[in-house]
Specification:
alpha+beta; Protein Transport Mog1p, Chain A; seven-stranded antiparallel beta sheet; three-stranded antiparallel beta sheet; about 20% helix; globular; PsbP_C; Mog1/PsbP_a/b/a-sand
């Protein structure tokens, strides 16, 4: 699909997050999705609960969500944590994968890559089953987990688009 069928979502600066006292504002993030993907209301009853900041979905292709979690839950790293300070890719996926997919990730991680964009490190994972592409990074005092998931048929048909969505995630 060409660039014209896609749009970039950027988290509005004024959007508040349901986070406790003492938290700095959430640093905005952005990603690209095909035009037919739509924002879906977040419920605190969702898997990941109150830490899910955003959801998008497409009935044809799959769904995505962003978890923004306080780094303090995992380590006291001061104000501006990096993903490397939280741990290497293996440690991060083992610690947070279950929050994302709802089960232990052991034996489900197909690939693990480290990418750098504008001086920020991103860990990228592909898991199955269930089919999921997860991008993790840290900024400020938060960990960002961006997850793109799909059922078997959607995965087969739209893998390239799903991978492009997952790889487009950036904290701005």
């Amino acid at each position: 699909m060409n660039k014209t069928g896609w749009r970039t979502y950027r988290r509005p600066d004024e959007k508040s997050g349901g986070h406790g006292v003492g938290w700095s504002p959430i640093i905005p993030y952005a990603f690209s999705v095909p035009k037919d993907w739509e924002e879906v209301p977040v419920s605190i009853a969702d898997l990941g609960g109150t830490e899910i900041d955003l959801r998008f979905a497409s009935t044809q292709e799959g769904r995505l969500f962003v978890i923004v979690a306080p780094v303090l839950r995992f380590a006291d790293l001061g104000g501006d944590a990096t993903i490397e300070q939280i741990g290497p890719p293996e440690k991060v996926i083992n610690a947070f994968g279950p929050e994302v997919i709802g089960e232990n990730v052991e034996g489900k991680v197909l690939t693990m890559e480290v990418a750098e964009h504008s001086g920020r490190t991103y860990y990228q994972y592909e898991l199955e089953p269930p089919h999921a592409l997860i991008t993790a990074t840290a900024a400020g005092n938060r960990l960002y987990l961006f997850s793109v998931t799909a059922n078997g048929l959607q995965w087969k048909r739209h893998y390239k688009d799903l991978k492009r969505i997952a790889e487009s995630f950036r904290v701005v």
